[in-house]
Each structure stands twice: as C-alpha cells, then as structure tokens.
C-alpha cells in the first residue's frame, strides 16, 4: 500500500521538495505529511514522545536510525491517519477516469426518486408485498440489456415472477435441472401463477449463435445452452432457407419461443394445469428496431393432438404497434 502511495505522489513530493530551502532535508514522505498536517516534521517526534510511542531510548539513537524511524512514522501516518483523504482522492480519480462514480450517483438518484414517488406513495402495498407475493405472471425473458420486461411492459413490483437467461429458453424436462425450470417450478407450484409468458426479441445474439454454430466436440457454455433450441433451428432451415441470414434469425427467434412453450408441456405439473385451464402459456416477441410487440397464446387442444416436439398451434394472436 505504501509503495503505491509513493509512486502516485512522486511528482508532488518532487515539486514540494524543490520549493524548500536547500539546507532543509526532507524524507520522501515528509512533504506529504507536512502538507496534510501543516506542522513541521519535528512535531512528529515530540508528539510521539508525548503519546508514549517512543521511550528514552529514542534520544540515544544515532541520527541515521532516527531518520529511518521518522520515515516509518511518516509512512504509518499516511497509511493510517490519512486513509480517508487518500480514499477520497482515489474516488475522485475514478470519477474522472471512467465515470463509474457518476453512474452510481445516477443510480442513487433513481433509487431515491423511486422511494419518494413510488414506495412512499404506495407504502401499504409494499408492506403487503413484504409479507407475501402473489404474481399472476411468470415471465421468461432474455438477459439482453435492451429488453427488460418491466421497462417495456410496465410490470410493477409483485406483478410478475421473472427469470432471464440467454435467448429466453426453456429446456425440456429430460434435459435435467436448470435454474430456469427450478424457477418455473417455484412459480407454478408455490406461487400458483396463472400465466407463463415467454418473451423473445429481435437481434438476439443467442439465436445468432445457434444459427451459426457447428457441431463441435468441445462446445462453449453458450453453445451448450442454446443447443436447447436446436429444433427451432432445424425448423427454420426447413421453412425459411430461401431467406437472408437476418430474416432466418428473426424466424428462429419466434420459432424458439414456440419450442419453449412446447417444452413447458413436458413438465407434468404444467401440462395438468394447462389441461384444466388454470394455467395459460403465452409467447411474446419484442422488435426493438420498430418498437412493436406481438403476443399469442398456445392452443392446448390443438397442440395436444400431436406429440411433443411437433409444431404447436396458437390462438389470440395480436400485434401492438
């Protein structure tokens, strides 16, 4: 820590030392110490004696040893006595260098605005939420920073239980446990949501990876994950092979949503509720290039007439623009 301080303040020490008379000798740390405290360096020795930090043996030390002792004392004062000043100096530099502090200041202001205008205005509602949550929606969306469901669709605290992953995928039951199906299980069995809403979006990097990746003996973590939507890729190649790559990706983005809806039916406790009509499965597609939103509902009766993995039937398709 001390050597980092010395390296950062070398130019300051040199400048201050050049302003002192040549007859006065300073230790490398004295210029900093004196500039902070405003006292002559001899004050350090007197103060140390008064506090009992040195004994009479100090007076018998040779000048060279005294110099080394003062150096160590100076360093100790800098590292311990002026930690707050140095910390502030570091934070100021962070703000200048990369703006991180400015961004966190904006976050602070947003939070305080939320507290003042939202939380305090609905304090009883938030007290109720502190006791129990009963959302009507389970939302499965992409991790993409441009497609936050709460921002786009206006979900308020307590309205939607959410999980976000790369390319908004739901693996089938046979693929084993994941964070996504664990969240879905909690939402359905414990929270008893009435709707599961899978939301995809335009320009999805996860789908682009799916469309371009080749069979590999050592796939990356992303490739392993988006491999859950291989069926959507195959259907896209069948149905939209004549289209451009960008158009194929858009087709696959929507097809992967339908595959996830069908994959949800591989979970018996979901299929049972969908069959009884107590749970609805919905798909949504947000195109942020045109700021439009498309939504549809899985038609269980028609989809159930075919085996899992086949194309599903939808109903109540609407387009918001």
TrEMBL record:
What the record notes about the co-factor is: Binds 1 zinc ion per subunit.
- Molecular function via GO: carbonate dehydratase activity; zinc ion binding
- Coiled-coil residues are none
Reaction(s) catalysed by this chain, per the record, are:
hydrogencarbonate + H(+) = CO2 + H2O
* Function, in words: Reversible hydration of carbon dioxide.
Question: What Enzyme Commission number(s) apply to this enzyme?
Answer: 4.2.1.1
Family to which this protein belongs: Belongs to the beta-class carbonic anhydrase family.
Q: Any idea what this protein is called?
A: Carbonic anhydrase
Task: Name the PANTHER family for this protein.
Answer: BETA CARBONIC ANHYDRASE 6, MITOCHONDRIAL (PTHR11002:SF19), CARBONIC ANHYDRASE (PTHR11002)
Q: Which UniProt keywords apply?
A: Lyase, Metal-binding, S-nitrosylation, Zinc
Residues given in the record as Zn(2+) binding sites: 142, 144, 201, 204
Which prosthetic group or cofactor does it need?
Zn(2+)
